[in-house]
Amino acid sequence: MNHKGRMTVVGMFFKKWLYYLIKLRNIIFFPFVIIYILLAGLGIYLIEPQTFPSFLTAIYWVFTTLATVGFGDYAPVTEAGKAYTIVLYITGIGLLSVFLGRVFKYVYLIDKLKVGGKMKYTGKDHIILIGWSTKSQLAIQEIFKSDIKTDIVIIDDLEKAPMLEERLFYIRGNATDEKTLLDANLPKAKGVIIFADQATQDQFAGKDPLLVDGKTLLIATAITLIEKKFNKDIHITAEVINQQHIPLFEQVKVDEFIPTQEMISHAAVRSLFSHGVTHMYTELMSTQYGDSMYEIEKQAEWRTYRDAFIDLLDKGATLVADGGDMHINQKLDYLIPEDAQLFVICDKQTFEQLNPKAKQS
C-alpha cells in the first residue's frame, strides 16, 4: 500500500472513530471527554516534564490546543512532544467541538423547558402564586420589594412564562392536579396565594358566579390533600370573589381570605365619609410609600400590651394588632400571651432594627 493509501486508511479510521463517539450515549460521552482531556494532559506531562512543570499546566495546554486558541506560552519542543500534539489535534479538536456543541444544546433545552413551564422547581421556602393576572403581577413586584431572596413560582396554563426574572419560576399545568403542585415543590413552600381565575371571572362571573370561587375551592382542596399526605402545614391565602362563599372555604385548610368585592366596596364608601382614607389603605397595602405593616416577635421584657406599645413607640413603630385583633388600645393592661402575633406600622429601617434577623435574611 502506497503512502496516499495509508493516509486514506488512517483518515477513514479517525473519521469512523469520531462518528462512533458522536453516537455514544450522553451518559458515556461526557465522562469520556473529561477522561480524554485528563489523560491527554498526563501524556504530555510525562513526555515533556521540563516544558510542562505541573499537571495543571499540562491540562491548561490541552484546553488551549483543543480550543485552537494557542496562546503560545507553552509548546512541545521534542520530536515526541510534537508528534503527540499532531495526534491530539487529529483526535481531540473534533471531539471537543462536539462536546461544546452538546453543552450549548442542553443549555438551550433547559432554558426552553424553563420558559415553557416544564421544569420542576427544586428549591424551598418559596412562594407559590396560582393564576396569572394583573393582581399576581402586582403581587410579584411587592414580594420582590419586600424580600430579596425568596423565590416565586407561578402556576398557570399559559404557553410560556409570563415574566422572566431571576427569582421567578414557572410551572405549566392544572393547579388542581397533584403532579403540577408537586412540580412546584408545594410540600417545601413557605406559602400559597390562590388568585381568582381571570378567564373564568371575565367569561362566567356574570352568568354563574359560583364558577369563579368554585375553581378556587377545588385548588384549595387539592393543596389541602397534599398537605395531609406529606404532613405539612403551608400557609394558604385565597382570593374570594363572593364573601358568602367563605364558610365553604373554611371546610378546607385556608388560613386567610381576600374578599375582593367587600374590601373595594368598604374603601369606596369610607372615602365618601372620610376623604383621603383610600390613600391610607394604599400605603398600608404597599411598600412603595415607606411605612408598612410588619409582624414582630414578642420581647421578653414586654409583660402587657402597654409595655410593648410604649417601647415600640419610642423606637418609631406603632403596635396596631395581635393577629386579627385590632383592639389593642382597649386592652393595654392585658398580659401578652406567649403565642401572640404582633403587628406594627413602621418603615423598613425601623423594622430591621427591631428584627436584626430580618435584615440578615
Task: Provide a descriptive summary of the structure in words.
The protein has 361 residues and is an alpha/beta fold. It has 3 domains: 3-115, Helix Hairpins (Orthogonal Bundle), CATH 1.10.287.70; 127-264, 3-Layer(aba) Sandwich (Rossmann fold); 290-360, 2-Layer Sandwich (Alpha-Beta Plaits), CATH 3.30.70. It contains 14 helices and 9 strands. The protein has helices at 3-23, 26-47, 55-66, 79-115, 134-146, 178-183, 198-204, 210-230, 246-249, 260-273, 277-285, 305-314, 348-354, 356-360; strands at residues 127-130, 152-156, 168-172, 191-194, 235-240, 256-259, 291-296, 318-322, 342-347. Helix 5 links the parallel strand 1 and strand 2. Helix 1 (3-23) packs parallel to helix 4, helix 2 packs across helix 3 and helix 2 packs antiparallel against helix 4.
Topology:
Elements: H1 3-23, H2 26-47, H3 55-66, H4 79-115, E1 127-130, H5 134-146, E2 152-156, E3 168-172, H6 178-183, E4 191-194, H7 198-204, H8 210-230, E5 235-240, H9 246-249, E6 256-259, H10 260-273, H11 277-285, E7 291-296, H12 305-314, E8 318-322, E9 342-347, H13 348-354, H14 356-360
Parallel strand pairs: 1-2, 1-4, 2-3, 4-5, 5-6
Antiparallel strand pairs: 7-9, 8-9
Keywords summarizing the entry:
six-stranded parallel sheet; Alpha-Beta Plaits; 3 domains; 361 residues; NAD(P)-bd_dom_sf; alpha/beta; Rossmann fold; transport; three-stranded antiparallel sheet; RCK_N; ion transport; Helix Hairpins
